[in-house]
Amino acid sequence: MAAAGGGSRADNGYGGQQARRRKGPGALATGYLVIYNVVMTAGWLVIAVGLVRAYLAKGSYHSLYYSIEKPLKFFQTGALLEEYLLIVKYLLGIVPSSVVLTAFQVMSRVFLTWAVTHSVKEVQTEDSVLLFVVAWTITEIIRYSFYTFSLLNHLPYLIKWARYTLFIVLYPMGASGELLTIYAALPFVRQSGLYSISLPNKYNFSFDYYTFLILVMISYIPIFPQLYFHMLHQRRKVLSHTEEHKKSE
């Protein structure tokens, strides 16, 4: 599954008018979700501030990854908790099937964070890393703010507009950064044999991580358009509904 870019993810089942189901979460669940989303918003704001401070201190955008490496790993990995809950809800029939794509999207980002950028240290100085980190950061600040205000039933139009508009640029930007980073990692993976298993061995099993990364890159071809056009469809539906509501008032 491709690492799904820096674009906005599909709605995760508990934010926004279009995501509301027949019965909303109870008070305890709502409280937990609000706290979770506030913490995640704050975490990605920390990453954004870290990037800006590092840029101002260095006077260059090169190699800014090291300034936000630890919080990036922590908060991107923390999104797995959110996706675990979503998968459970999906299995219970509470949220739509698009959540499956969202879950893969998060896991692919975690994969890129740990199995590519962390594991192949030579790529950490690549400008492509900054490309997807900036796209992810802006996206997640907007996304978690969107969920927080939606849960509190006080969603500003500006946040809704940003959620369903900025992905048009952020999605290709993030996906490009991810692809370029994986591509930059390929020669180092091939040379080191990272995560590869060669025959013969007692399990009679082989795995070539270099080939696997190429397959990951190829998977962007069918998956990127599907996710991108899904968000374009969501944008038309959500923003047109908002405009109609304004006119009726």
From TrEMBL:
Q: Signal peptide span per the entry?
A: none
Entry keyword annotation includes RNA-binding: no
State one Pfam family annotation. Answer: PTPLA
Keyword entries, A-Z: Endoplasmic reticulum, Fatty acid biosynthesis, Fatty acid metabolism, Lipid biosynthesis, Lipid metabolism, Lyase, Membrane, Transmembrane, Transmembrane helix
What reaction gets catalysed by this protein? Answer: (3R)-hydroxyhexadecanoyl-CoA = (2E)-hexadecenoyl-CoA + H2O; a very-long-chain (3R)-3-hydroxyacyl-CoA = a very-long-chain (2E)-enoyl-CoA + H2O
Where does it live in the cell?
Answer: Endoplasmic reticulum membrane; Membrane
EC id = 4.2.1.134
Pathway this chain belongs to: Lipid metabolism; fatty acid biosynthesis
Membrane topology, as annotated, equals: Multi-pass membrane protein
Q: Which InterPro entries match?
A: Tyr_Pase-like_PTPLA
Q: Into which EC class is this enzyme placed?
A: lyase
What residue spans carry the region label Disordered? 1-23
Instruction: Please give the Gene Ontology molecular function terms for this protein.
Output: very-long-chain (3R)-3-hydroxyacyl-CoA dehydratase activity
Composition bias of kind Gly residues appears in 1-16
Q: Which GO terms describe its biological process?
A: fatty acid elongation; sphingolipid biosynthetic process; very long-chain fatty acid biosynthetic process
The keyword Endoplasmic reticulum is annotated on this UniProt entry: yes
Listed transmembrane segments: 33-56, 90-117, 129-152, 164-189, 209-229
Q: Which GO terms describe its cellular component?
A: endoplasmic reticulum membrane
Q: Classify the main location.
A: endoplasmic reticulum
**What is the purpose of this protein?**
Catalyzes the third of the four reactions of the long-chain fatty acids elongation cycle. This endoplasmic reticulum-bound enzymatic process, allows the addition of two carbons to the chain of long- and very long-chain fatty acids/VLCFAs per cycle. This enzyme catalyzes the dehydration of the 3-hydroxyacyl-CoA intermediate into trans-2,3-enoyl-CoA, within each cycle of fatty acid elongation. Thereby, it participates to the production of VLCFAs of different chain lengths that are involved in multiple biological processes as precursors of membrane lipids and lipid mediators.
Q: Record's family? A: Belongs to the very long-chain fatty acids dehydratase HACD family.
Q: This chain belongs to which protein, by name?
A: Very-long-chain (3R)-3-hydroxyacyl-CoA dehydratase
